[in-house]
Amino acid sequence: MGPHRPCNDMLPQAENLLRTIAGEETGWVPRQELFFNNPRIVQRVLGRPPVGDFREELDFACEIGWGSVRATSWGARIGARNETASDGTSHYAGGSAIEMSDLDQLRGPDLDLLASTYAERASLVRGEGLLVHLFMLHCFHSAATGLGMERLCLMVYDQPELLAEYMRRVEAINREALAAVLSTGIVPDIAIFDADCSFKTAMMVSPAAYRELIFEPTAATARMLHDAAIIMLMHTDGRINEVYPVWLEMGVAGAHGVEAQANDLAEVKARFGNRMTLFGNFDPVILATERPRAIRALAREMVETGRSGGRYVAAVNTIVGDHVPVENYLAMIEGVDEAARA
């Protein structure tokens, strides 16, 4: 970390998270969700009706015991189709075919608005003694959802130049947005790539094709992060045994997910846990459907598996959605905390 963030300014949960990501064995497993959308849990924890503003997000993070808060996010993508369901909600409905000329439609965020919003929120987060993180959509996830998974797989062989150029342009946009963030003078502590690239049994494309597509453009973004002393994390669902080696080459400090339905936490920890910090891996289906007593026991077991040697952060392996019962999530927290301190 750079000099902008002295440890004595942090809340204990923030310092513990930072030290854990850095590889220290602190004797205290942090809790940190990266994907969360459950107003009922917010209301229970804060004791007031949710309003959905940033001040509420910050208050909730402090109260629930997280060490970091998202100050901004962005993503560049073309081709994705949405359809309206019978209940009036909009849902992702697949990707679309594109040509090289269509890539000019790729647009990043409004950089002035991004910088001003980030600066305001990051200042508030720092003022509370927490770490600042941001999210960006990784080039592979952008292509997989913008073009559609089947089309992307075909393009690996039929239109490799077009696919590679898509990846390059998305990461160039990510770097422009990062530059706008850095121009504020408030350097984020953590940058997270939303980088889904794997199914439950294997990667979406071959490991060789994945590396060829993403390595050069992502490494350029990674260098920008490293030069600014920003911690680099990546998220994917699915099977990770062939994903993490590529990410480690680019200097990733940690990975979020370790999806329980696709990976054995003990095996992943044994293979990668001395080189990167693992975030996960509580199953969101179990979280939504099991009884609190069972959830508490499973959370305790998860932490007992993950904490050996440090470099482990307890989390749900995807999103804590609004379908999760309040009592179930609170039971998970209780189970984590029971096993969190060595």
Describe this structure in words.
The protein has 342 residues and is of the alpha/beta class. It has a single domain, classed as TIM Barrel, CATH 3.20.20.210. 46% of the residues lie in helices and 13% in strands. The chain contains 13 helices and 9 strands. Strands 1-4-5-6-7-8-9 form a 7-stranded parallel β-sheet. Strands 2-3 form a two-stranded antiparallel sheet. It is globular and about 55 Å long. The N terminus is likely disordered.
Lay out the secondary structure.
Blueprint lengths: L11 H10 L17 H8 L7 H11 L3 E7 L7 E3 L5 E3 L18 H17 L3 E7 L1 H9 L1 H10 L1 H23 L7 E5 L12 H21 L3 E5 L8 H6 L4 E3 L8 H8 L4 E6 L1 H6 L2 H15 L5 E5 L9 H15 L2
Helix pairs in contact: 4-7, 5-6, 5-7, 7-8, 12-13
List the main descriptive attributes of the protein structure presented here:
342 residues; alpha/beta; TIM Barrel; 7-stranded parallel β-sheet; two-stranded antiparallel sheet; 13 helices; 9 strands; 46% helix; globular; disordered N terminus
